[in-house]
Amino acid sequence: MISFDEAFEKVMQHTQDWGIQTVDLLESTGRVLAEPVLADRDFPPFDRSSKDGIAIHFSAIEKGKSTFQVEGVLSAGMPQQTLSSADYCFEIMTGAVVPQNADTVIMYEQVTLENGSATIKSIPKKGLNIHKKGSDAITGKVLLQTDSLITAAEIGILATVGKSSVFVKKLPKVCVISTGNELVNVSEIPLPHQIRKSNTLSLYAALSKENIVPELLHLTDDKKVIQENIARVLQENDVILLSGGVSKGKFDFIPEVMESLGVEKVFHRVAQRPGKPFWFGMQKDYNTLVFSFPGNPVSTFANYHVYFVPWLYQSLGLHYPKKEVILDQPILNDLPLTRFVQVKTYAEKGKLFAKPIKDGGSGDLASLSKSDGFICLRPRNGEYPKGELVSYIPA
User: Fold this and answer.
1) Which of 238-242, 328-332, 368-372 comes out lowest in average pLDDT?
2) For residues 383 and 361, what is the distance between their CA atoms, to the nearest angstrom?
3) Which of 27, 109, 154, 179 is the most buried (most CB within 10 A)?
4) For residues 91-95, average pLDDT
5) Better-scored residue on pLDDT, 125 or 252
6) How far apart are CA 375 and CA 328, in angstroms?
7) What pLDDT, on a 0 to 100 scale, did the predictor assign at position 194?
């Protein structure tokens, strides 16, 4: 059995690269950019008005002029016009091109319009309310770096530079497998000795947040059936997430089957709770990784977020942020194990606090809905006091 820190480090040493693909712009949300994105022209591409008002040449004000004849109205989308002389002005709308020979925009609130003329109420500053050409970015400037996560903001930038399709990093092909004779489909009425499948569906939902749609597979506790199916899955997937079959029971065939299929064990059993029987390995012929979690719901859920999510982020070139929360009550971990304790976080006076959730152990599925993550408590001779900062894994 190895420590949690050793196990985590070994998992992170097995990051992968699945290549690059092209996707349509609107399908790229949540994906990782695989190319730098450059400004294809200056931004903004012209001097634009940032307010609704009138456009003038400031020299007229310097000569004492305060009333201007309106020679037209400019809206966003119109070609650039020319101010005929400093005695004139254009009414101009936000986003419109500032006319040639104009250098200042005065808001309507500071202007009186009457009989085709505009009179200013107070003297403005020269150059006011003009968003200058190239002030945000000049042609060729890098707007988005490779390895950027594409969110709604990035979609807007990609659209602005004309990227109707985007190079993104490929996601792994994943199969989620549960084992156990006690499991039945969600739509079935279980007998007293049976339970409905939940772990694979929880993992399916969690993976969907990462834009991964996995294959789902359930296998009975039959070694031959498990071996035949996993042999196929290893060849067809980049990652296998297993739930169950890795403890020391007589029907826990996963370690034996993995060895028979040439999956090299990296480690089995970690000094942690929940999830001590966690098995991790790799089939080098197919470059397929196997995360085999214990079958109890909290164990599967915790190990997925503690190990798989940071591993996925690192594989995709993303930074997985380390988060900390403040304990709102003392908590003891006098076991020789790292504990992942369910918590509910809340903000108070600008700080994030965590309240431990009481649960019935790693089989208490209902407790997961009461928490929003786990705190990581390494073994300690004394309690973690109220007010201490501890590591937090959102889930």
Assistant:
1) 368-372
2) 20
3) 179
4) 98
5) 125
6) 12
7) 84
Instruction: Tell me the per-residue pLDDT of 147-175, one tens digit each, with 9 for 90 and over.
Output: 999 999 999 999 999 999 999 999 999 99
What is the pLDDT at residue 375?
97
Question: According to the model, what pLDDT value does residue 362 have?
Answer: 63
**Please, how many CA atoms are within 13 Å of residue 243, restricted to the half-sphere of its CB?**
28
Q: What is the mean pLDDT of the chain?
A: 94
Mean pLDDT of 104-115: 97
Q: Distance between CA atoms of 345 and 327, rounded to whole angstroms? A: 9
d(CA 358, CA 368): 10
Confidence check: pLDDT of 110 > 70: yes
- Select from 255, 295, 251 the least CA-distant residue to 276: 295
Alpha carbon 209 to chain centroid distance? 8
pLDDT value of position 190:
85
What the block records as the tokens of 126 is 């020269």
Confidence class of residue 363 from pLDDT cuts 50, 70 and 90? Answer: low
CA 137 to CA 153: how far, in whole Å?
Answer: 16
201-225 pLDDT per residue, tens:
999 999 999 999 999 999 988 889 9
* CA–CA gap between residue 78 and residue 126 (Å, rounded): 24
- The tokens describing 333, both together, are 């971990």
- HEC-encoded secondary structure of the chain: CEEHHHHHHHHHCCCCCCCEEEEEHHHCCCCEECCCEECCCCECCCCEECCCEEEECCHHHHCCCCEEEEEEEECCCCCCCECCCCCEEEEECCCCECCECCCEEEEHHHEEEECCEEEECCCCCCCCCEECCCCCECCCCEEECCCCECCHHHHHHHHHCCCCEEEEECCCCEEEEEECCCEECCCCCCCCCCEECCHHHHHHHHHHCCCCCCEEEEECCCHHHHHHHHHHHHHHCCEEEEECCCCCCCCCCHHHHHHHCCCEEEEECEEEECCCCCEEEEECCCCEEEEEECCCHHHHHHHHHHHHHHHHHHHCCCCCCCEEEEECCCECCCCCCEEEEEEEEEEECCEEEEEECCCCCCCCHHHHHHCCEEEEECCCCCCECCCCEEEEEEC
Omega prior to 44 cis, within 30 of 0: yes
Cα 369 to Cα 298: distance, rounded to the nearest angstrom = 11
**Taking Cα atoms as reference points, which of 183, 176, 234, 182 lies closest to residue 201?**
176
